[in-house]
Specification:
The chain is elongated. It has helices spanning 4-30, 45-49, 54-65, 71-138, 157-163, 167-170, 237-272, 281-312, 324-340, 361-378, 438-448, and strands spanning 142-147, 152-155, 184-189, 196-202, 209-220, 226-235, 320-322, 345-350, 357-359, 384-391, 397-404, 453-457, 463-470. It is an alpha+beta fold and 473 residues long. The strands form 3 sheets. A 6-stranded antiparallel beta sheet has the order 2-1-6-5-4-3. Strands 8-10-11-13-12 form a 5-stranded mixed beta sheet. The protein folds into 4 domains: 4-112, no CATH class; 142-235, Beta-Lactamase (2-Layer Sandwich), CATH 3.30.450; 251-312; 320-470, 2-Layer Sandwich (Heat Shock Protein 90). The protein is built from 11 helices and 13 strands.
């Protein structure tokens, strides 16, 4: 039995020794190496006590020997102390090992998830890129993508064939940089602000001229900044050749038709004037109908001639200051007899004090005749057509409108009314079928004057055509 004082002393020594051991253990545990699973585990008390070296045991024995009666008691106390230390060691090792294991497993799990997500994203991007490349290679039109500096960053095989260049030569360079002077006939046709441009090049293979249409669109990032441009190249050489053949044919046929029409018109005029003898009222009625339709046929032939001139860019304007009210009055009077056959009333609404406008009188008259004729065709009997001329609010433009209460135009057909040879709606059966180019010619003439033309309509609610003409400063 130990005395009470001896017990206190032994307890204090044990506390000091445990503190010293924990410091040594902290140093020793930091030097432990990870095995296959990254951790060193302790499974028994004997394995843990192996960490207690002889110097520590000797220190414990020496400290205890001073307060005990014999060496056997010192060794006994030393064994108990080392046992307590071993138990504490085992607890600390297990706790520390468990914490490291959990952290390691968490890190490893997060790493695996991150790698799995990254691989999935990589596979998706790679798959999307392959699909995109396949689509781009299979596109029949040439496809070229340039960056913000105008350097080519992508080109498909069709673009290589059209430009007669290789992709290796173009990547990192301008689209037209490598085209030789003798190969490049005309780099660009059209205004700089137009999306569609034409490029004329000479092919190395067959030494023939090709005409390409370049349709471009700006590429913007999520902040609205321009980062590049994509251009689609189409070979329109055959289309241009066909258009030229059509224009030549129309011009030739129209010219040949005008000669007999003039002869017929003169003959009818002589008969109606009584030069060839008296005619009955019934004969006069039929001859008047023939003369009126002959004039309309003449206007159709003139439209065909004008269309060929417009397409060839050979329609010249002879402008002079003129009163728009005078042009409108003459146009209304020339078509009044046609409107009367359908009991259609044509009203004029002119803003007082309109200034003169610098235009080609004959061409603006042609525009008004085409628009008025279109309204007469699609307005039922006893309908009303209103011709109006006013100044725009900024007083820089003169606005002319022709509105009717006819059958109107559907929203689907409205954007196409100015297309060549396009016709919409149902006419009165007795009307002569037109060619569908009157509105197209009107649009071309107005735009040649620097103005704009458009239509407003709904099915069953009539139609209103408006065109503007710039006023001289």
């Amino acid at each position: 039995m130990f005395s009470l004082m001896t017990l206190y002393i032994v307890t204090g020594v044990i506390s000091i020794l445990i503190a010293i051991f924990l410091v040594n253990f902290a140093r020793a545990s930091g030097q432990a190496r990870l095995k296959t699973d990254g951790l060193m585990r302790r499974s028994s008390l004997e394995q843990d006590t192996s960490l207690l070296d002889d110097s520590l045991r000797n220190t414990i024995f020496e400290e205890v020997s001073h307060v005990v009666d014999s060496s056997e008691q010192g060794r006994e106390i030393m064994k108990k102390v080392t046992g307590i230390i071993a138990e504490e060691l085992e607890k600390k090792v297990e706790l520390h090992t468990q914490e490291l294991s959990e952290k390691y497993e968490t890190i490893l799990e997060q790493k695996n998830k991150a790698e799995e997500i990254a691989w999935k994203k990589y596979d998706k991007v790679l798959s999307d890129k392959k699909n995109t490349d396949a689509v781009i290679r299979s596109v029949a039109e040439g496809l070229v993508v340039v960056n913000a500096k105008g350097k080519v960053i992508m080109m498909n095989p069709a673009a290589e064939r059209l430009l007669d260049v290789s992709k290796k030569e173009k990547i990192g360079k301008g689209l037209l940089d490598n085209l030789k002077e003798e190969q490049l006939v005309s780099m660009i046709k059209g205004d700089s602000d137009q999306e569609d441009r034409e490029i004329e090049v000479i092919s190395h293979q067959d030494e023939t001229k090709k005409i390409l249409r370049a349709s471009s669109a700006v590429i913007e990032n999520e902040n609205g900044q321009t980062v590049g441009m994509v251009s689609v190249l189409s070979d329109i050489t055959k289309q241009k050749e066909l258009d030229q053949m059509k224009s030549n044919f129309v011009a030739s046929v129209s010219h040949e038709l005008r000669t007999p029409l003039v002869a017929i018109e003169k003959s009818l005029s002589l008969i109606l004037n009584g030069t060839t003898g008296a005619i009955s009222p019934q004969q006069e009625q039929f001859l008047t109908i023939a003369e009126r339709n002959l004039k309309r046929l003449g206007r159709l032939i003139n439209d065909l001639l004008d269309l060929s001139k417009l397409e060839a860019g050979r329609l010249d304007l002879r402008t002079q200051p003129v009163s728009i009210e005078k042009i409108i009055t003459e146009s209304v009077e020339s078509l009044k007899s046609w409107a009367d056959t359908k009991s259609i009333e044509i009203r004029k609404n002119m803003q007082p004090g309109l200034p003169e406008v610098n235009v080609d009188t004959d061409r603006i008259t042609q525009v008004l005749n085409n628009l008025l004729g279109n309204s007469i065709k699609f307005t039922p009997e006893k309908g009303i057509i209103v011709v109006e001329a006013v100044l725009a609010e900024n007083r820089n433009w003169l606005c002319v409108s022709i509105s009717d209460n006819g059958i109107g135009i559907s929203k689907e057909a409205l954007p196409k009314v100015f297309d060549k040879f396009y016709q919409v709606g149902e006419r009165v059966p007795t009307d002569i079928t037109g060619t569908g180019i009157g509105l197209s010619i009107a649009k071309e003439i107005v735009e040649l004057h620097g103005g704009k033309i458009w239509a407003e309509s709904e099915a069953g609610s009539g139609t209103k055509f408006i065109f503007t003409l710039p006023l001289s400063n």
